[in-house]
Amino acid sequence: MGTTRKAIWISYDFGLKGDYTGLYTWLDNHNAVECGNGLAYCNYDTSSLSSSIANEQLIKHITNDLKEHIKLSKTDRLYVIWKDSETKRVKGEFISGSRKQSPWEGYGKLSNERTIDTAE
């Protein structure tokens, strides 16, 4: 029986005091490759898991694995992206932290509405 693997991407944002040593050790042990600032890709070995494991259980397993090896603070953010093998849809979920306001908010023009400022 061959090794079963699941392609995942991990986005991380730890700030200055994050456990980069723990994260980088985990990434290196999983043969991850760098994909830009704060983004890594790896083929996560799932051969030790039941072949019938649901995607939700797989992400919980990955979450527990990461949290076992990385000391996370309240401000650390980890986001995992994977392709759901049942629905064939790409999914993403925060496993630590949450979404922040996007730095690009307000740059785009969302409507053609003209605004005229007036004063008396």
Rg, Cα atoms, Å? 19 Å
Distance between the termini: 81 Å
Number of helices: 2
Q: Based on DSSP secondary structure assignment, what is the total number of beta strands?
A: 5
Helical fraction equals 10-25%
Name the CATH class: Alpha Beta
Order of adjacent strands in the largest pleated sheet:
2-3-1-4-5
Care to describe what's here?
It is a single chain. With 120 residues, the chain is an alpha+beta fold. It has a single domain (5-96), classed as 2-Layer Sandwich (Alpha-Beta Plaits). It contains two helices and five strands. The chain has helices at 20-29, 55-69, and strands at residues 5-13, 33-34, 39-45, 77-83, 90-96. Strands 2-3-1-4-5 form a five-stranded antiparallel beta sheet, covered by helices on one side. A hairpin with a 6-residue loop joins β4 (77-83) and β5 (90-96). The chain is elongated and about 75 Å long. It starts with a strand and ends in a 24-residue tail after the last strand. The model has no long low-confidence stretch (mean pLDDT 86).
Note the topology:
Blueprint: E1 5-13, H1 20-29, E2 33-34, E3 39-45, H2 55-69, E4 77-83, E5 90-96
Antiparallel strand pairs: 1-3, 1-4, 2-3, 4-5
Could you give a quick summary of the protein structure above?
With 120 residues, the protein is α+β, with helices and mostly antiparallel strands.
